[in-house]
């Protein structure tokens, strides 16, 4: 069973499935949910991606009320809305199931028929009235928000993502596929390759490349071996990261490996991309932790600080040489659930949405943004702590590391 949707624009979770069943007056069944989830897993690659107002309506989570409104609208006006495929898929699956067919085909008989027809007519008139009001309210909200809508259409674009097998890299890979991109992802080894490919539908336009980024030139060699050139890549998100938790900053082997993955592999790939003269948006995934030190992490924060400053230096060089084709965006996110960090009951409120972060990264890359710090309140909190001085930082981060979950 799929616990969480890979493509939230098209797939539904258990809560949304229950709302769907409540609207259709059907009993939730786990086996049918699994089959519906599998059908919807392929939807992004079989059907047209919603755009404009349809996309605006597709983003919020589904409730029974929302499904009722979208059902009526998608029958007549917004036929490319994902809810149409969700409803059609669910009904088709229930029609092929014994219990489901009995529930769908249940109908009044005898003297109950005219009363049921009157009730259905009244319900339809009421639903139509509510839907019309709701539609105009939603459309007004859409028009008001249009100037602030983020760019997110990746149709016809190729996105390169390092560290694509888990965490933020995986989230960006899935989001890019959902938005219509062709994706090139790098993973560390064959096990990660097989695991990721097993999750994705066969028709997903993704090419995975195995490269151990702790080895010098591994990433550029792997790309060239796969006959990929810089001019074929529109956006490069350098997301691969390594963190040795509970490891001293004086542990030289781990320190070198941390810098090799978090810094030098990104620098090598940036050189390969920016030296070609092709137009590329280069996204360096740093960390808000680059503003302060951190004990027992084998220099993770130091490697991110080096990456951010190096990225700024690269941008200065490109500006000085008149190279305007390679845009540099430095991303310094707060904490989010990943292999490096997991939520605990006491720290859950600090964690950012990984999906929302992926959305903002792609939007920023498309719009030419230079710096992204998300959530921004976390950046302000970090800077405030840093202003307290090193003694305060020593005390604060020693306690914080015991509260926030560490590497899995």
Automatic annotation (TrEMBL):
Q: Which domain of life is it from?
A: Bacteria
Q: Which GO terms describe its molecular function?
A: oxidoreductase activity, acting on NAD(P)H, oxygen as acceptor
Q: Which UniProt keywords apply?
A: Oxidoreductase
Keyword RNA-binding attached: no
> A single Pfam family, by name?
adh_short
**The keyword Oxidoreductase is annotated on this UniProt entry:** yes
Which family does the entry's similarity section mention? Belongs to the short-chain dehydrogenases/reductases (SDR) family.
The protein's name in its UniProt record: SDR family NAD(P)-dependent oxidoreductase
The organism of origin for this protein: Candidatus Methanofishera endochildressiae
């Amino acid at each position: 069973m799929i616990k969480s949707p890979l493509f939230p624009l098209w797939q539904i979770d258990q809560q949304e499935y229950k709302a769907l069943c409540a609207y259709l007056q059907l009993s939730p069944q786990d086996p049918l949910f699994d089959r519906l989830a599998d059908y919807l897993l392929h939807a992004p690659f079989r059907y047209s991606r919603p755009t404009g107002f349809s996309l605006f309506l597709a983003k919020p989570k589904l409730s029974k009320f929302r499904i009722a409104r979208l059902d009526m609208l998608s029958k007549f006006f917004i036929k490319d809305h994902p809810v149409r495929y969700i409803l059609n898929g669910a009904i088709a699956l229930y029609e092929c199931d014994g219990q489901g067919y009995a529930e769908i085909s249940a109908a009044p008989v005898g003297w109950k028929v005219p009363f049921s027809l009157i009730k259905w007519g009244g319900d339809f008139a009421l639903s139509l009235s509510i839907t019309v009001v709701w539609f105009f309210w939603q459309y007004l909200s859409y028009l008001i928000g249009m100037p602030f809508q983020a760019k997110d259409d990746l149709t016809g674009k190729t996105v390169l993502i390092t560290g694509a097998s888990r965490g933020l890299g995986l989230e960006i890979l899935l989001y890019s596929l959902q938005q219509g991109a062709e994706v090139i992802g790098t993973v560390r080894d064959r096990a990660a390759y097989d695991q990721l490919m097993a999750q994705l539908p066969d028709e997903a336009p993704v090419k995975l490349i195995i490269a151990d980024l702790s080895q010098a030139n591994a990433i550029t060699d792997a790309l060239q071996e796969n006959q990929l050139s810089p001019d074929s890549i529109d956006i490069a998100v350098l997301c691969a990261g390594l963190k040795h938790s509970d490891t001293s900053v004086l542990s030289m082997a781990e320190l070198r490996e941390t810098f090799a993955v978090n810094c030098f592999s990104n620098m090598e790939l940036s050189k390969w991309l920016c030296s070609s003269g092709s137009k590329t948006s280069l996204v360096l995934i740093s960390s808000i932790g680059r503003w302060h030190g951190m004990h027992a992490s084998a220099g993770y924060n130091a490697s991110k600080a080096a990456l951010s400053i190096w990225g700024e230096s690269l941008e200065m060089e490109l500006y000085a040489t008149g190279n305007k084709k390679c845009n540099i965006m430095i991303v310094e996110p707060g904490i989010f659930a990943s292999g490096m960090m997991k939520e605990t009951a006491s720290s859950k409120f600090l964690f950012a949405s990984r999906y929302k972060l992926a959305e903002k990264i792609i939007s920023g890359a498309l719009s030419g943004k230079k710096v992204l710090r998300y959530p921004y309140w976390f950046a302000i909190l970090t800077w405030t702590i840093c202003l307290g001085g090193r003694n305060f930082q020593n005390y604060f981060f020693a306690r914080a590391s015991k509260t926030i979950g560490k590497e899995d």
